[in-house]
Design a protein that fits this description.
Radius of gyration: 14 Å
Distance between the termini: 32 Å
Helix content: 40-55%
Number of helices: 5
Strand order of the largest sheet: 3-2-1-4-5
Length: 131
């Protein structure tokens, strides 16, 4: 199974696209995980019902087996690492964005935490062109 950390933006869409490609090559399913700590009234990284509908439409059109999971009140890193602890999880796919060294120092880095802590392979991707 391919686990993909999804956010409803260009980074999440890039991760999803690569996860679908990997699932086809490996002939396996995709689990899409979208999580939020729930510590803000509105988290732009948490998919709303329209985003989830579009996501399910894209996955359905791909022809691969999939599950979409949304989790509230958890650290997204912990949720993804828990998903990767499953026996059938083979690869984690995440979208990454460029951040300055100061930005990483002040805000931490979700991608860095996942890359260092995940016990299985991680594929970090970026959108083709971000303006």
């Amino acid at each position: 199974m391919i686990v993909v950390g999804y956010t409803p933006d260009v980074y999440g869409r890039a991760a999803l696209e690569h996860a679908i490609s990997e699932a086809r090559v490996r002939d396996t399913a995709v689990t899409v995980l979208n999580a939020t700590k729930g510590d803000a009234l509105a988290d732009p990284r948490f998919a709303d019902s329209t985003d989830v509908g579009n996501l399910e439409e894209t996955l359905g059109a791909s022809g691969i087996s999939f599950v979409v999971e949304q989790d509230v009140s958890v650290d997204p890193v912990d949720a993804l690492l828990d998903a990767m602890d499953r026996d059938d999880a083979d690869l984690l796919v995440i979208g990454i964005r460029h951040r300055s060294p100061v930005g990483k120092l002040l805000m931490g880095s979700t991608a860095q935490r996942l890359l260092l802590a995940c016990p299985k392979p991680v594929l970090a991707v970026k959108p083709a062109l971000v303006q």
